Hints:
The chain has 13 helices and four strands. It is mainly alpha-helical. A two-stranded antiparallel sheet has the order 1-2. Strands 3-4 form a two-stranded antiparallel ribbon. α4 (74-85) packs antiparallel against α5 and α5 runs parallel beside α10. It starts with 18 loop residues before the first helix and ends in a 7-residue tail after the last helix.
Amino acid sequence: MPAKPPEKISAHTSRTMMYRELSMLLEAVPPGAPGAAYQAAVLQENVLLKKTLSSRKKTLGYLRALYVLRPEDPLFRALRALWAADPVGRPLLALLVALARDRVLRATIPAMVEAAPGAVVSPELLSAAIMARSPQMSPNTYRSAGQNAASTWTQSGHLLGRRHKVRTLVRPTPEAVALAMYLGHTEGRRGLRLFTSDEMKILDLSPHQLDALAFAASQRGWLDYKRLGEVAEFNFPYFERVLGASYAGD
């Protein structure tokens, strides 16, 4: 079986969210393909262009840790459906799924939310955020995780720059908002509380912008939207019908 990083360690101690590899893999494997097709694409067909079989196995293991790569998994099915519908929003879609899967990456959310546009966000800052919430790793592991998290937030569009990374505002699509709201829904949030989840905070939107994009998502069929003043009701028939049982994070 392909190597898989221990869940207690997290993919981000050794890798980023691997947006490039994920994009190449989803391009190579058609929607609806079984999980075995993703394994074959990486190991036998080498669609990710890795030099050795060992590297292919490790890459597949980390991708599975973050995205599962099986159509039986509701969150992966959601990713595939939204990925096809929203090419522009793909970096944020990948980030949202990675955040749901990876505790270490998720620990850096407060640091990113608190950083004002233009502020420098160093790997050391992210390492400190991880250390505060995952106090059982070595100094080298914290350092590596901070560097990888900084790269992930760069891939998603939240950071800009190579040597000195500065905070920038992202521009979410209705599909990214729909996925963030669905993740909040699986956590038990209802009504306007969906706008206050960690997933929504990293989308860099005001309440008015969130509401507008939620309405746009409803117009595209991703969710049902009802609102009267400060009372709102959101339902997710698409996710529940097509994806089956609700996803629950680790």
